[in-house]
Amino acid sequence: MGKIYILICRNQKLVPIGIIQVFHGMAEHGGRYQNFARYMNEKGFYMD
Questions:
Q1: Among 10, 13, 28, 40, whose Cα sits 20 to 30 Å from the Cα of 22?
Q2: Residues near 8 by beta carbon (within 8 Å), at least 6 away in sequence
Q3: Which residue range forms the structural domain that includes residue 27?
Q4: Which residue numbers delimit the Serine aminopeptidase S33 domain (predicted)?
């Protein structure tokens, strides 16, 4: 059985203004979105 990995970028001190979910393709790696997730977290969004 395959595994599912998730990257959650949340600032626990922040009340988010929104939540962003990214679904990437089979040939991509979730780590590719790590910088974007940090940026959006700094702007007030949770990113899952």
A1: 13
A2: 46, 47, 48
A3: 1-48
A4: 16-46
